[in-house]
Structure formats: structure tokens, C-alpha cells
Amino acid sequence: ASWPTDGAIKCENLVIRYAPDLPNVLHNLNFEIKPGEKVGVLGRTGSGKSTLALSFFRFVEPTEGRILVDDIDISTIGLTDLRSRLTIIPQDPTILSGTLRSTLDVFNEYEDAEIYEALRRVHLIPSGDSAAVSDEVNANVFSNLDSHVSEGGENFSTGEKQLLCMARALLKRSKVLLMDEATASVDYATDELIGKTIRHEFAQSTILTIAHRLRTVIDYDRVILLEEGRIAEFDKPANL
Ligand code: ATP
Ligand code: MG
Known about the structure:
Layout: E1 9-16, E2 26-33, E3 38-43, H1 49-55, E4 64-69, E5 72-73, H2 79-85, E6 87-89, E7 98-99, H3 100-104, H4 112-121, H5 139-142, E8 148-149, H6 158-172, E9 176-180, H7 188-201, E10 206-210, E11 222-227, E12 230-235
Parallel strand pairs: 3-10, 3-11, 6-9, 9-10
Antiparallel strand pairs: 1-2, 1-4, 4-5, 7-8, 11-12
Helix pairs in contact: 4-6, 6-7
Protein name: ATP-dependent bile acid permease
Keywords: ATP-binding, Membrane, Nucleotide-binding, Repeat, Transmembrane, Transmembrane helix
Organism: Grifola frondosa
């Protein structure tokens, strides 16, 4: 099986600054996340949440320390490989123009039926009996894989783009998912759909969700509270 098989995460003495003459943004972070654990990351603006997420994809390299996924130091893995095996759902995903099919299946690897199944599992199209699709979601567009996707995915809302990224992660059977919750208000229904998808469809995957409210991650296993690039708390949500 291909790495990562379990999705265990370990940060060892992680220090990050963006340039030698700039201050540290993350100060010596040490933490471990077990396979399949759902962990929220909270903290005020500028506390280093996105920097932490980006460092898993080596968009920022550690100044000191290292990140291990299933005991492999991610700095030893090729960038393309690394970025295709972990999934990041950014604050505002960029989506290339094309069709819904090409968006979800960049390398033409999957059957249409598998792609429709992934769209169902993220609630972008109705799953038979369920009325789970929110009124906000344009189910017609998602029911046709030939639907046109305009440059940047401008015909989708931010929440829909995040759900599309999650559908892609399901197709890839991604074991590690990092999600940077949209800052721009995602409507309540879409927020619920994202939460439901994480609980039910990614039960076996390790999830790190950057959230703006404790409410979003209240049913997660644990929450990291970042304060100025340091871990102030790492505990069950109920204890915060
Ligand atoms: P928000 O809640 O607003 O998204 P955040 O917790 O995600 O904030 P980061 O984006 O990780 O915060 O930023 C942490 C610190 O690093 C901030 O002081 C920010 O100004 C700085 N920073 C972020 N990106 C860069 C960059 N590319 N170059 C230099 N400094 C940066
Ligand atoms: Mg951020």
C-alpha cells in the first residue's frame, strides 16, 4: 500500500519563519495526532494556523524541526508525491476551468459512477432517499459531469468548492486531510454539510481542521489552541 497508510502525524520541534530577518511564526511546536483522529486548530488571526497547514505541503519549509507522517519525514518525499498523497482544502480553493469531471478527476483515473458516488457522499447531489442537499447547493450543476466549470470555479460558492475538494479526497482515499475553514461566511447549511461529511465519510482519515469557532469542531476528538505561534491548549473540546 502507498504512503500514508495510517495517517499518524508528529510535529517535532517545529519552528517556522518566513525569512531569516523575520520573527518566528511557529515556535517549537511538538504534538502527535493518532491515525483517524479529528483535530481542530483554533487561534486568533495571525496565530500561525494557515502556516501550520501549509507546512505539511512544504509551501513553507521548517526553519527547524520536522513533520512526520506515518514516521516518514515529509522533507524526504518529493513535492509532487507529497501533494498528491495528502489533501489540503484551502480557505478559498482555486479550481481550474474545464468540466466537473476534469475538476474531480484530473488524471482521468475514475469511472463516472465513482465520481457520482463521491459527489453523493459530500452531499452535492442527493443520495436517493436523502433530502440532505441544502437549498443553497445547485444540485443540477453537480448532477452532470460535463457541466462547465469557469476559470477559478467562479460559478461555485466557496463552500461548494470546499465540498468539491472533499469529493476529490474521497476519490483518492486520502488518509490525511487538512482543511482551512473559509473565513468568508460559508452559509450555515453548507457548514453543516461539511461537518457531516467529515464525520461520516472521513471516519478512517486523520483530519486537521482550522476553524474560526469552537462550535465547528465541538464534536472533534481534540483541539489545538494556537497563541502567537505556540500551543496554548491541546485538549478535548469540552475541556476548553
Ligand atoms: P487567519 O486566521 O487570519 O487566517 P492564521 O492563524 O492563519 O491567520 P498565518 O496566515 O499562519 O495566520 O500567519 C501567521 C503569521 O505569519 C502572521 O503574522 C503573518 O503576517 C505571517 N505570514 C504569513 N504568511 C507570510 C508570508 N508569506 N511572508 C511573511 N509573513 C507571513
Ligand atoms: Mg489562515
